[in-house]
Amino acid sequence: MAPRLIINADDFGLTPGVNRAIAELHRAGALTSATLMATGAAFDDAIAIAHANPSLGVGCHVVLTDGTPVSPPESIPTLLGPDGKTFRPSLIDFVQALLRGAIREDEIEREVLAQIERLQRAGIGVTHLDTHKHTHLFPTVSRPLLRLAQRCSIRAVRNPFEPVWSSRLAPNALVRRLQFHALSIFGKKSFQSLPQLAHSHILTPDGTIGVSATGQLNAASLHQILHAMPRGTWELVCHPGYNDAALDTIATRLRATREIERQALLSEIPPAIRTLPGLELIHYGQIDEQKDKPGIGDKRLL
């Protein structure tokens, strides 16, 4: 089977400039999917763009760190940072609390459900779930995430593990590659064995590519990744946008790189469609169209 590729932009709803880039890329045929932040500052603008572009697959970008919850703060105290109103401000803080057992799984489930339902109330047919900063690498997050996907009739979830062939192509990313490799050793088997995935009630790609290249995904690195892609179904994770005044108000390390990624997608995806034999671009809502073929929800290939 030729490669099937989901090109997903995270952070939909973060700023109007991020939203504009997502809309432009989708209309140019260089983006198939985006995941929407339920409490993003430009949420309403993202909703309008999603409704105006029905061929864009829209998932829920679940935020559990570095953001504001949808749930009343008093209902999720173990998820909150020192101010008692917002999430812990960094991934390191979140992971440390998670590993100490200081975060309750039922509170994660409550907040994830609130975020999903906010999108659904806005008329979004949620195609899939993923998490900000890939927190569902950890079973304490992936378990409730998959339970809710099944409960809310969401058919797919991001595979948070990057294949070795993709991570090796990331430029200047040795530390990031080592971090994700260590997490994969401890978490990949647990993720694969979760019943929703093991029994194909929820589907997931064979892996997520471009993770290690985050912040370094230029045209050259994207070209290498695309031309190294083997058979199967993959998600390319990206963070395009415009580095404008609105982005200056957001706490993010991805600023100028958002414009670099936007240009890389515009320059590399259209020729890849023409030159890579059989390459098919899909979004997560189409992932089950070949569910009986190898590579789709096949736990041997995750």
Mean pLDDT: 90
Low-confidence stretches: 291-302
What's the level 1 CATH class?
Answer: Alpha Beta
The count of helical stretches stands at: 11
Distance between the termini: 16 Å
Write down how many β-strands occur, each being a DSSP E stretch of 2 or more residues: 7
- CATH domain topology: TIM Barrel
- Structural class estimated from helices and strands: alpha/beta
Instruction: Kindly estimate the percentage of residues that lie in beta strands according to DSSP.
Output: 5-15%
Concise overview:
The chain is of the alpha/beta class and 302 residues long. 41% of the residues lie in helices and 11% in strands.
Descriptive account of the structure:
- The chain has helices at residues 16-27, 43-52, 91-99, 105-121, 139-151, 164-167, 174-193, 195-198, 219-228, 245-248, 256-275; strands at residues 4-12, 33-36, 57-62, 129-131, 207-209, 233-238, 280-282.
- It is globular, with a radius of gyration of 18 Å.
- Residues 291-302 have low confidence and may be disordered.
- With 302 residues, the chain is α/β, with parallel strands linked by helices.
- Helix 9 (219-228) packs parallel to helix 11 (256-275).
- Strands 1, 2, 3, 4, 5, 6 and 7 form a seven-stranded parallel β-sheet that branches.
- It has one domain (4-301): Glycoside hydrolase/deacetylase (TIM Barrel, Alpha-Beta Barrel).
- The chain is built from eleven helices and seven strands.
